[in-house]
UniProtKB/TrEMBL annotation:
Purine nucleoside enzyme that catalyzes the phosphorolysis of adenosine and inosine nucleosides, yielding D-ribose 1-phosphate and the respective free bases, adenine and hypoxanthine. Also catalyzes the phosphorolysis of S-methyl-5'-thioadenosine into adenine and S-methyl-5-thio-alpha-D-ribose 1-phosphate. Also has adenosine deaminase activity. PANTHER family: PURINE NUCLEOSIDE PHOSPHORYLASE LACC1 (PTHR30616:SF2), UNCHARACTERIZED PROTEIN YFIH (PTHR30616). GO terms for molecular function: copper ion binding; hydrolase activity; S-methyl-5-thioadenosine phosphorylase activity. This is Purine nucleoside phosphorylase. The keyword Endoplasmic reticulum does not apply. Belongs to the purine nucleoside phosphorylase YfiH/LACC1 family. NCBIfam families: peptidoglycan editing factor PgeF.
Length: 247
């Protein structure tokens, strides 16, 4: 179920961060098996069952999901929003100060970004594909977290398609290089490519945010969903949840 799972404790509680894989779910091909995306053509009942399985592994906490639109919009979400059954926001980043609420970001090649400030009790997620990286979704998420009081933010970048595998037209490569030189890449065949995660990492570095990078190329790793590799496929997720200390 988890490609990577990290947990750390602090006097104020615990912080869990994870990236799921495609295993241990109920979806059938071509979405086998732990597809978490409702928008890809999978059976809705299977997706909701998969989401419940993930929630159970995180202690039964509710999960906030987004309608991801490849932009730079950021939404603040609360536990009450999710508990009321309110539809997820149309955005590509979410931030929250609430404990006991997981934030989820779905990907199948794009870069999932998990953000946190333990002392301030603020968490965030961002969906950084090529358009989102160029639009500045990650800097926008950092700004939103600082508005909530975050001052010492750290980041985890999850698995995404690597620069060797993300071939693009020359003009697209050149535009990305001009905006964020670190994102310029070349495929294993020597053709123009973009390394979105490297571009995001440079944005975080410019903002003074330390990061942990979970290795793994979605196109090369069979446990992960990849739209570039498979076309019709599911979505895995990056998730972050802060749990208050029990007195």
């Amino acid at each position: 179920m988890f490609f990577w799972h990290g947990r750390r404790e602090s006097p104020s509680g615990s912080l869990e961060r994870c990236f799921t894989d495609s295993l241990d779910g109920v979806s059938e091909a071509p979405f086998s098996a732990l597809n978490l995306g409702l928008h890809v053509g999978d059976d809705e009942r299977a997706v909701r069952a998969n989401r419940e399985r993930v929630s159970a592994q995180l202690g039964g906490v509710p999960i906030a999901w987004m309608d991801q639109v490849h932009g730079a919009s950021v939404a603040e979400v609360t536990l009450d929003d999710v508990a009321s059954g309110q539809a997820g926001p149309s955005a590509d980043a979410m931030v929250s100060r609430d404990s006991g609420l997981a934030l989820g970001v779905m990907v199948a090649d794009c870069t999932p970004v998990l953000l946190s400030d333990d002392a301030a009790g603020v968490i965030g997620v961002a969906h950084a594909g090529r358009p989102g990286m160029l639009a500045g979704v990650v800097p926008a998420a950092l700004e939103a977290m600082r508005h909530l009081g975050a001052r010492d933010i750290s980041a985890v970048l999850g698995p995404s398609i690597c620069g060797r595998c993300y071939e693009v037209p020359r003009e697209m490569h050149d535009a990305a290089r001009q905006a964020h030189p670190a994102s310029a890449a070349i495929t294993w065949r020597g053709t123009p490519a973009i390394d979105v995660a490297a571009g995001v990492a440079s944005q975080l570095a410019d903002a003074g945010v330390p990061l942990e990078w979970v290795p793994g190329c979605t196109r090369e790793e069979p446990r992960l969903y990849s739209y570039r590799r498979d076309g019709a496929t599911g979505r895995f997720a990056g998730l972050i949840v802060r749990k208050a200390a029990v007195s």
